[in-house]
Amino acid sequence: MSELYTLVLFVHLLAFVFWLGADIGVFILGKFAQNPAYTVEQRLLLLQVALIVDKFPRVSMVTAVSTGFYLSVTAGWITLPSWLTLTCFAVLIAWFVVIVARVLSEQAPHWVELSEKVIYYLLLLAFLGVIASATLGTSVVGPSWLFGKLALLSVILVLVLWLEKAFQPAVIGFMTLPETGSTPELEKQIKGAMDTTYTSVIGIYACTLGAAFLGLSKYAFG
Question: N or C: which end of the chain has fewer CB within 10 A?
Answer without folding.
Answer: C
